[in-house]
Design goal:
By secondary structure, the chain is α/β, with parallel strands linked by helices. It has nine helices and 25 strands. The strands form eight sheets. Strands 6-3-2-10-25 form a five-stranded parallel sheet, with helices on one face. 40% of the residues are buried.
Length: 417
Amino acid sequence: MIRIPTVVIGAGHAGLAVSYLLTQRSVDHVVLERGEVANTWREERWDSLRLLTPNWQTRLPGLEYEGDDPDGFMTMEGVVDFIEGYASFVDPPLETDTDVESLRRDGGRYLISANGRSWDSDAVVIASGGFNRARIPAVASDLPPGVHSVTAFEYKRPAQLPEGGVLVVGASATGVQIANEIQQSGRPVTVAVGEHVRMPRTYRGRDIQWWLEQIGRLDERYDEVDDLVRARHVPSPQLVGTPDRSTLDLNALTAGGARLVGRLSAIRDGTGYFSGSLRNVCSLADLKLIRLLGLIDEWATERGLDPELPAPERLPDTVVEEDPVLSLHLGGDIATVLWATGYVPDYSWLEVPVLDRKGEIRHDGGVVTDAPGLYRIGLNFLRRRKSSFIHGAEDDAIDITEHLAAYLGNDAARRVG
């Protein structure tokens, strides 16, 4: 049994950021990683994926992007290189190929088991990511036998799919990017559309991420929103990072030949049935986009920037067929169903009773309320809207490590007393 004050589980960008800040605070710790550094980026994303955020926004505590393409978007190889470079910079006390098998609490301490070894710690930071497994809806179990089923987690490239049409279920960033790539491979694509967030890549000459940062949207805190549960489950925006900085939305997909249907609600006897709310969900996304661009315009006007910027503009409304299809035979025109329905974290190893009825950790901005000394980082809107982005880890990690250091100090004082 190895006795150590703090254990960090995960050596992705968030875990490394925590390690850097713990070292700055002289907190002794170890980082446990199931594979290699940046394992998720290296092994669990499709080949053509690029970051949604521009390179200039790629930064972590103590290090930021210094390349010659600040307005570009990193490929997965580039992300892995950046995080590996950050790991070299941080030089953490790292144990790779160490898959945590259990985390349990014994009195006021935490016991971690991995690969036949054990650690005994005062505090634990779970930085294992929020995208460990694909979220697959129950309706998937009703697919007819002849239809190929693949999740966005498993998808790598169009060539792995059988010939024939593809139904992409989900229209967030992942859904529209994969649908666009499959469509360009020559396969007919149908997209089942539920709630989504529409967003232009650029607006008035600047990247949309620049605008979101400037108007303060990305820094909005978890304790400043009216409905935090909803805010944490808002779909990722329809964005893609490409060299030409193109906007990828439903209109771009339909212009390329894709067909839109409503949310997949049921599968019976080989037929998929879709919600009739397609027009409504698209209209709502259009309305929210108009509101966002209005806020940007107001911010620019208040600061006297209008003379140096292109004039305000609005994207066309989402084009929806007069009578969208409500059912499709699966196995005829549709050879593959691809589930772009989100991801969930894997807590199969977590034996501390801190999960709610949906299997999510109960926490207050990353501080696990039911288990003092246990922390979570790397989730959507953990402490700020930007939490899910690489650059969002910095402020979250600062807050988490500050709280952790205070906890360790108070706990040590209690033990001495």
